[in-house]
Amino acid sequence: MSLLEAAPDWGELYDLRADPNETRNLWDDPDSAAQKLRLLEAFARRQIALRDLSLCPTARA
Fold this sequence. Notes:
Keywords: Hydrolase
EC number: 3.1.6.6
Structural class: mainly alpha
Protein name: Choline-sulfatase
GO molecular function, one term: choline-sulfatase activity
Shape: elongated
Oligomer: single chain
Organism: Litoreibacter arenae DSM 19593
Radius of gyration: 17 Å
Largest sheet: 2 strands, antiparallel
C-alpha cells in the first residue's frame, strides 16, 4: 500500500501474490474496499503508536 500526503484521495494497493509486477492498482476496486480499510486503520494505529513523545523545547539556545 502506498499513500501520498499531497493527494489524500489517491493511493496504491496491489495483490502481490496475484500481481507481483504491480500492474493492477486495486485502490478504487470495490472488491478490495474492506482490505483497504483494514490496512488504512492499521497504518493509522501504527502512526499513533510511533508519535514523537519527546518534550518540545521551551527556550532557544
